[in-house]
Amino acid sequence: MNRRYAGLASRGIGRALDMVLLAFLITGASWLVQQFFGIDPEHCSPDTQWWHLRARLCRYFPYVVPLAGVTIPPLYRVLFFVVAGQTPGMGVMGLRLLREDGRRVRLRQALKRVATFYVTLGLGSFLIPVTARRRALHDTVAGTVVVYDWGDHEVEVRRAIEQARSADA
Amino acid sequence: MEQVLVALTASRDVEQLVIHLLRQPEVNGTVDEIVDRQLERVLQALRENEAVRDLVREQVDIYLKHLTEHPEPVRQLIQDQSRGMLHDIQATVRARAFVADEAVDAWIGRVLRRS
């Protein structure tokens, strides 16, 4: 199969873009919730009755944001891998996640990949430059590969690569 | 005087003589200088002319009104320009990352061979 496998730099930048996007999403959503419900975690009214939902939300709000920070990123990755085969950050960098045989990733592979990534704290990524198909540990476990997919902009990117190479030479 | 001028402009020989003279570098330079000087004077007069200013203002108003009523081409132009610029930036980032991928692989390869 004549595929070009993506390396550490492209994948790292894609991941960094996703992290920035997630940070904006989570902080933005928490700000919106605070504004919508008028919550100020430092001045919560007592929740003396079970139906005092706003007071309860206010009390637990300081724990909600870190919890979202832990749970949303893996869900985001699994969702985008299954639905689009790439996260938005990967999309910007022109990367696509595929199964080893070139087919689309399904829920099982996406879950395995994301779970392995978080269990190994992403350290398996350091295998990318030393493996034949630039596979990280989570790729090997899930049976996936990350390839370049520049879509309609293939020609522009190739031209830019030539320019970058000649500028570096 | 007028009759003389009409007769001269009608004459084929005079026309050829003028063309011949204008092709001479030194004459051509002089003519250029005269035209430039005259043009500058005319442009200055036009700049200071209130009627011309009114005409320009009127035309600008007409164009602005037309653009306000039909903003689609301008909007399309701006969108195309922005999209083109974004695509260029994206292509550059992707290309740079691609080259960096190769560089990382090459560096790791060298380190591993050495050890």
Architecture overview:
Chain A is mainly α and 169 residues long. Chain A has one domain (8-168). Chain A contains six helices and two strands. Chain A has helices at 8-37, 53-84, 88-93, 107-119, 137-142, 154-168; strands at 95-99, 144-148. Chain A has a two-stranded antiparallel ribbon with strand order 1-2. The two termini of chain A are 30 Å apart. Chain B is mainly α and 115 residues long. Chain B folds into two domains: 1-70, no CATH class; 71-115. In chain B, 94% of the residues lie in helices and 0% in strands. Chain B has five helices and no strands. Chain B has helices spanning 2-10, 12-23, 25-48, 50-69, 72-114. Chain A binds chain B through residues 6-10, 13, 92-94, 129-130, 134, 148, 150, 153, 156-161, 163-165, 168, and chain B through 87-88, 90-105, 108-109, 112.
Strand percentage of chain A: 5-15%
Helix/strand-derived class of chain B?
A: mainly alpha
Terminal CA distance of chain A reads 30 Å
Category from helices, strands and their pairing of chain A: mainly alpha
Give the termini distance of chain B in whole angstroms: 101 Å
Count of folded domains of chain A: 1
Q: What is the tally of helical segments of chain A?
A: 6
State the total count of DSSP E strands of chain B: 0
How many structurally independent domains of chain B? Answer: 2
Q: Return the string of H and E elements of chain B.
A: HHHHH
What's the average pLDDT of chain B? Answer: 88
The shape of chain B is elongated
Instruction: Give, in order, the helices and strands of chain A.
Output: HHHEHHEH
Strand order of the largest sheet of chain A: 1-2
Summarize the structure.
The complex is a heterodimer of chains A (169) and B (115). With 169 residues, chain A is mainly α.
What order do the helices and strands come in, and which of them pair?
The complex is a heterodimer of chains A (169) and B (115).
Chain A: H1 8-37, H2 53-84, H3 88-93, E1 95-99, H4 107-119, H5 137-142, E2 144-148, H6 154-168
Antiparallel strand pairs in A: 1-2
Chain B: H1 2-10, H2 12-23, H3 25-48, H4 50-69, H5 72-114
